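agent> Task received from the user: take the single chain below, predict its 3D structure, and emit structure tokens. No templates, no multimer pairing.
agent> Plan: (1) validate residues, (2) run structure prediction, (3) serialize to tokens, (4) report one or two observations.
agent> Step 1 OK, no nonstandard residues flagged.
tool_call: predict_structure(input=
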Amino acid sequence: MGLSRSSYYDRPSGPSPEQRKAQADLRDRIEQIALKFPRYGYRRVTAQLQREGFGVNHKRVLRLMRESDLLVKTRRKWLCTTDSRHGYRVWPNLYRQARPTGINQVWVADLTYIRLLWEFVYLAVILDAFSRRVVGYALSQRLDASLTLGALRAALGDRRPAAGCIHHSDRGVQYACDEYVGLLTGAGMRISMSRRGNPFDNAQAESFFKTLKWEEVNLTQYRNFEQAAAAIPAFIEQVYNRERLHSALGYLSPVEFEEHLSPPGAGQKTAHQGVLILTP
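)
tool_result: status=success, residues=280
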């Protein structure tokens, strides 16, 4: 082949100093994202890196996260908080035929428990089904109607939806009671409830609770109600609504998604979710 002996035995020099630095910078940034969002999977990490200008695909990110033990661990099981054995009216499911095309057309509501060191507290949330944004929430040490009423009042005061907006929830007594239904009808909202024993009818709210528990609650041991009341609203407002990328929104945060629909100053109200803290 006309090669000298030295050329035959020559070994490749490997990556250049610039390439090695770029690889180190990529690993550092992946670790930073994984520490900030401990429950981000490799696809969301890839989307965030691409937004920042890194030329990577999901296969490479998966390999690097696996090598650094940064992949998501298994989640905990949940407890049921729904009591549908009551004498109040059960409303038909309107959300099955509705597909929102804008904000404030469909709201989904649900509640869950939060485990503290010695007790439980309860969180009720309302999400806009189109943007997945949390538009109202309340935290309480009691699992009663005052919890869900607090979340609803916060959402109504913040967003002021037009008449006809669908409010979808499960059949729990906290959503079917007279005071809650009266507040909905007074605001001109249409009431919708899931089918019996079918959590898929309220999948968006369930998905939010999975995110909340994977990425905040299960990573923290709240000692008391005050610690939970400080940490959970901060996660909802600053992380979930404003920073966390949502695959169903084209890897935008809910706030970014709403701003793409109607930039600030174009008539859209920029929501600020107040939290109502309820204690015995």
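agent> Step 4: summary for the user.
The chain has two domains: 14-67, 95-278.
agent> Done.
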